[in-house]
């Protein structure tokens, strides 16, 4: 079943969206991209003559009510975009009456799902080492089923449009699907687009395939790096992890960011790339700074000859050329993680050059997928988001999908 071939006329649809938008200290939305991302799905249901029960999480309240993370703060924004009033249910486990009262075209927004420990299904306030943990976990899984059943009871049909949480088996992202027949559960438009973008990267790869992995640490990216070795022609590793590699190779890295317990892992990655015939590209030079701030003093030097007291905060000109050549020639591109501390204008040149090379390759027919919070922030900062093939809304979910893992949120619907 797809959202396009289902007629929502007279039906109540419960839709899991990702309205986990950033708020300032006064509760104002600072970036509404995620709300706008869900609109095509929500509008299609309303246009068919259906009614909407919208559910989402916000932040990490860890199973407790936290007014700072209340979705009531975004109710007006949702109403504005849907051009109609939005009813709010403060207790999402006791919203049956409000859901039952919905008429075609009406909208009900549920409170933050994660105010309930049942949403994530993890026992709260008990340590994993505690002998009673397993029993508590089992009990919570039962409560999670009950909670999912309650949510499912509000509606005739379930739509999941929250890619960012699709890698989690939570009540609203996966378990709830068990309470709907196969022809009454489906992915929303945003999810469909995300799945298609991942399919584009994983199947029918046009070569050369260049992946650019940046960000701060090797440790958080190791799963995807190892997995990509079986798929890519060029693997570019940049950002903070550069210095773990440089140190592992015997370089002096000054006070650059480094994971000292991952030096052997870095050497293993180099060996693995050789064994698999992958062209591994590491930074050779960098823009080093005498302090971690935008207006620090800078110098260009080899990543292996950074003076004491200095740290590498961006890739240097030689590296930029090396990387950009491998990007411009590519026919498939994946970018996750910035090349440097792009948040500082004086250290965003490397990331900007990477983004521009991706745009150029895309113009020449490459498929380019940019995903993971910080690289998305990068293309947004440079105003290039609409010049790459696809910008994913998923961080962890995208990486797990590309690692080839089956995402629970998608499996729950597709079987
Ligand atoms: P991640 O969340 O692991 O993708 O890392 C993203 C963060 O890595 C961004 O906030 C960047 O500022 C940071 N980063 C990139 N390059 C460096 C670097 N050379 N030194 C310190 N942090 C870096």
Annotation keywords:
415 residues; alpha/beta; Rossmann fold; 6-stranded parallel β-sheet; 14 helices; 16% strand; binds adenosine monophosphate
Portion in strands: 15-25%
Strand order of the largest sheet: 3-4-2-1-5-6
Overall pLDDT, averaged?
95
CATH topology label of the largest domain:
Rossmann fold
**How many independent structural domains?**
2
How far apart are the termini? 12 Å
CATH architecture of the largest domain: 3-Layer(aba) Sandwich
Flag low-confidence runs.
none
* Rg, alpha carbons: 23 Å
CATH superfamily name of the largest domain?
A: Phosphoglycerate kinase, N-terminal domain
CATH class annotation of the largest domain: Alpha Beta
Question: The biggest beta sheet, please?
Answer: 6 strands, parallel
Shape: elongated
| Class derived from helix and strand content | alpha/beta
Beta-strand segment tally: 17
Bound molecules: adenosine monophosphate
